[in-house]
């Protein structure tokens, strides 16, 4: 059966029709005011539908206005110019309907190897759901339009199976757009299967609103993975955060979670920030015992809740930060004592024995009862003493670009979840803490197929120009071998759309590798390679051309 499964996999390698995955954009189009337009505003005041066969370049501050919609089908690819930002204004909608096989990608327009956090702005969704501020603005008014209202069921559209890479453009010091910013977004919005990678600010930030979300990935972010403010009261389940140890906030602190009610430590503004976060796996910069973390990193706490927030966490694990939990300000601490703010069935692996003024990994300097509260027996929390990352027992976190956060046999995360809390009614019931099912390998987890943990080195086949300024066709092509049938040799001709790592491999019908013809970094161009089958038996063979962003398979017959 193993050989048959491999053969089926080979035959289906080119099943995706995504233009950026298999090449073949039929056209190019600018979204917005034009290249190098910076923060120039552009207003889409009509309904617009994008085409997955077109390469789009987002420019300027692109607004979808009240009563209008931008529709982005599965497989669309949008590269973004410097400072470009997509904003769905209050009353507007986005219908971004990616799929597991054909996700929608927003990324930097810079080539592989040159991309950086903050290359462009990100995506901003603004809605009419309640917030605890009057006519608030995003990023100090740099983004036009307020948000919030009295419509908790408001819909900003659909946003599913979407990747947002290298966002967070710094407009001013401490004034960056997040990867995905949500202001007053209502629970009528469909929001799930999203990955934000290498944001210069938070990966996700909710400013009020009621939107629920599931299956969220935050990767390599500079600031916090998940940040909630201004009265956000949604329900979140299955989130994965992973820090790059070489990336941190240069002007603040890098944390797994952060939550505020607003900017005041004595805030009584309602609604209070009170999301439920369930089944999160959040991995800090020290993802394994052997991971080296620069001493200059600004990473500090696993989670900080303050300024009257009631944010609550269940059935989750946070590991790899220097310290554990910090509950700050008198009102926040009282919410914990009143059992309004809850942490239940949470595992922490923090590294440093004592915070200054503390006898545990938690912030007793801010609240001397935090360790006693966290350790309440019926809360089933673990981790007030310092522990190493490997103590959590994830399968393999050694490779940043190929993480395996599935709990391994013997992990305390297995079988230790509890959904009897009335607050968790309506959430998907699972038996494990964290975001990943210990009974499934990574190829079967909810992250499979649509996520990308190496966006820096992904060679998207966008238009490339040679030294004379001539455009090189943006597609990959694997021609039929010739002759076919053959004896004893045949020539395989193929083209590579852009410089990058390429493999050309031959398999038999059982899926066994019989020849590795190419395994190297190749420049763009068209190539020929000869395959000699003189030592093989007659039969059918498959050959696969594969690189970052493309994969094609052919079939040939050896007849002796």
Keywords:
560 residues; 3 domains
Plain-language structure description:
It is a single chain. This protein is mostly beta strands and 560 residues long. The chain has three domains: 26-211; 234-239 and 253-460, no CATH class; 468-558, Immunoglobulin-like (Sandwich), CATH 2.60.40. 5% of the residues lie in helices and 37% in strands. The chain contains four helices and 39 strands. The strands form eight sheets. Strands 1, 3, 4, 6, 7, 9, 10, 14, 18, 20, 22, 24, 26 and 28 form a 14-stranded parallel beta sheet that branches. A ten-stranded parallel beta sheet has the order 2-5-8-11-17-19-21-23-25-27, with no helix packed on it. A four-stranded antiparallel beta sheet has the order 36-35-38-39. A hairpin with a 2-residue loop joins strand 15 and strand 16 (175-176). It is globular, with a radius of gyration of 25 Å. The two termini are 28 Å apart. The model is unreliable at 1-15 (pLDDT under 50).
Short structural summary:
With 560 residues, this protein is mainly beta.
Structural class: mainly beta
Q: Classify the beta-strand content into a percent band.
A: 35-45%
Count of domain modules: 3
> Helical amount among residues, as a percent range?
under 10%
Rg over C-alpha atoms, rounded to the nearest angstrom: 25 Å
Uncertain parts: 1-15
**Shape descriptor:** globular
Please tally the helical runs, counting DSSP H or I stretches of 4 or more residues. Answer: 4
**Measured distance between first and last alpha carbons:** 28 Å
The major sheet is characterized as:
14 strands, parallel
What average pLDDT do the residues reach? 90
Care to count the β-strands? 39
């Amino acid at each position: 059966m193993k050989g048959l499964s491999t053969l089926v996999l080979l035959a289906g390698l080119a099943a995706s029709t995504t233009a950026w995955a298999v090449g073949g954009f039929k056209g190019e189009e600018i979204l917005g005011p034009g290249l190098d337009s910076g923060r120039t505003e552009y207003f889409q005041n009509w309904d617009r539908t994008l085409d997955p066969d077109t390469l789009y370049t987002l420019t300027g501050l692109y607004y979808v206005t009240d009563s209008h919609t931008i529709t982005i089908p599965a497989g669309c690819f949008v590269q973004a110019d410097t400072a470009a930002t997509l904003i769905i204004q209050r009353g507007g909608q986005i219908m971004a309907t990616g799929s597991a096989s054909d996700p929608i990608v927003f990324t930097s327009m810079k080539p592989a190897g040159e991309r950086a956090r903050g290359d462009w702005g990100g995506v901003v969704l603004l809605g009419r759901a309640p917030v605890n501020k009057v006519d608030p603005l995003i990023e100090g008014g740099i983004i036009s339009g307020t948000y919030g209202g009295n419509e908790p069921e408001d819909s900003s559209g659909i946003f599913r199976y979407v990747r947002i890479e290298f966002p967070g453009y710094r407009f001013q010091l401490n004034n960056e757009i997040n990867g995905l910013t949500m202001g007053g977004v209502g629970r009528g919005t469909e929001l799930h299967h999203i990955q934000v990678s290498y944001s210069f600010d938070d990966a996700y930030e909710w400013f009020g609103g009621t939107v629920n979300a599931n299956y969220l990935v935050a990767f390599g972010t500079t600031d916090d993975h998940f940040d909630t403010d201004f009265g956000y009261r949604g329900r979140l389940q299955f989130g994965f955060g992973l820090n790059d140890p070489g990336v941190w906030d240069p002007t603040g602190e890098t944390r797994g979670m952060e939550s505020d009610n607003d900017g005041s430590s004595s805030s009584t503004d309602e609604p209070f920030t009170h999301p439920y976060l369930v089944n999160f796996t959040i991995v800090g910069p020290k993802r394994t015992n052997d991971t080296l973390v620069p001493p200059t990193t600004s990473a500090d706490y696993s989670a900080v809740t303050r300024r009257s927030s009631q944010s609550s966490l269940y059935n989750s694990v946070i590991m790899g930060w220097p310290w554990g939990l910090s509950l700050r300000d008198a009102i926040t601490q009282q919410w914990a004592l009143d059992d309004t703010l809850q942490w239940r069935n949470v595992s922490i692996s923090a590294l440093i024995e004592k915070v200054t003024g503390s006898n545990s990994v938690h912030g007793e300097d801010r609240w001397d009862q935090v360790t006693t509260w966290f350790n309440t027996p019926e809360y089933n929390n673990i981790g007030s003493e310092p522990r190493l990352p490997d103590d959590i027992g994830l399968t393999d976190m050694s490779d940043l670009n190929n993480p395996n956060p599935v709990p391994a046999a013997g992990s305390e995360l297995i079988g230790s979840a509890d959904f009897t809390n009335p607050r968790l009614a309506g959430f998907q019931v699972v038996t494990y803490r964290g975001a990943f099912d210990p009974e499934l390998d990574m190829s079967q987890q909810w992250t499979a197929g649509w996520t990308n943990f190496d966006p820096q080195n992904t060679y998207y086949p966008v238009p490339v120009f040679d030294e004379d300024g001539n455009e090189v066709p943006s597609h990959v092509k694997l021609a039929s071998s010739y002759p076919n049938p053959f004896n004893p040799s045949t020539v395989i001709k193929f083209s590579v759309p852009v410089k990058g790592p390429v493999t050309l491999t031959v398999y038999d019908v059982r899926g066994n590798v019989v020849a590795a013809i190419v395994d190297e970094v190749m420049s763009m161009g068209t190539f020929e390679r000869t395959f000699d089958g003189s030592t093989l038996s007659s039969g059918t063979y498959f050959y696969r051309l594969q690189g970052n962003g493309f994969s094609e398979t052919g079939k040939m017959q050896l007849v002796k």
